[in-house]
Amino acid sequence: MAYLKKSPWLLHYDASSCNGCDIEVLACLTPLYDVERFGIINTGNPKHADVFVITGGINELNRKVVKNIYEQIPDPKVVVAVGICACSGGVFRECYNMAGGVDQVIPVDVYVPGCAARPESIIDGIVKALGILEEKREEMKEKEKQHGN
Amino acid sequence: MSKKIVVPFGPQHPVLPEPLHLDLVVEDEKVKEAIPGVGYIHRGLETLVQKREYPEYVYIAERICGICSFIHGMTYCQGVETMMNVEVPERAEFLRVIWSEYSRMHSHLLWLGLFADSMGFENLFMDAWRLREHVLDDMEATTGGRVIQGSAKVGGVRRDISSEKLDEMVTGLEGIRGELKDMMDVFLLDSSVKSRLRNIGMLSPEDAYELGAVGPTLRGSSVASDVRMNGYAAYDRLHFEPVVEDGCDCYARCAVRAKELFSSIDLIKEAAQKIPDGPIEVKVTGKPEGEYFSRAEQPRGEVIHYVKGNGTKKLARHRVRTPTMANIPPLVKMLEGCEFADVPVITLTIDPCIGCLER
Ligand code: SF4
Question: How far apart are CA A92 and CA B250, in angstroms?
Answer without folding.
Answer: 36
